[in-house]
Structure prediction request, 165 residues.
Amino acid sequence: MDYKLVERPSFTIVGKALRVSTKDGENMRLIPKFWDDSLKDGSHERLASLAGKNSGILGNVTLGVCADFAEDMSEFTYMIAAEGTEKDGLEGMVERTIPPATWAVFQAEGQLPEAIQNVWGYIWSDFFPSGKFKHGSAPDLEIYPMGKPMDDDYKFEVCVPVVQS
Prediction:
């Protein structure tokens, strides 16, 4: 799978958060449910509205953000977020600053959640074990442009912070 390296300055996001475990694939079950719940309760629509007002670093996208990893990578905080700081109408949302970093950006296509899970599988089973890069200290980013994520041709990106091994 091809990737490109992208340097990004610091930026701020607003979103809702869920702590998940990687044990027994719990994250693979709970994160899609978290997205479904966010679509049903209207919080995704409110975040998409914030993204629509923004032309910042990432532009008009919603994000999946993986942060605050346990030292053994057994759990992390997952956020559904948008770039920006405006929290009007976004009760219960948290704000987080994403530090400047270099990301390996993987462009992908396919129906969610299967397509995103395949990308993550490649990153953890092939990309990092290849030894060229180590995981950096910034959060992982899933970049979801507006569109139809259930379509076979839906395009999205996965960005993992990297440092040379």
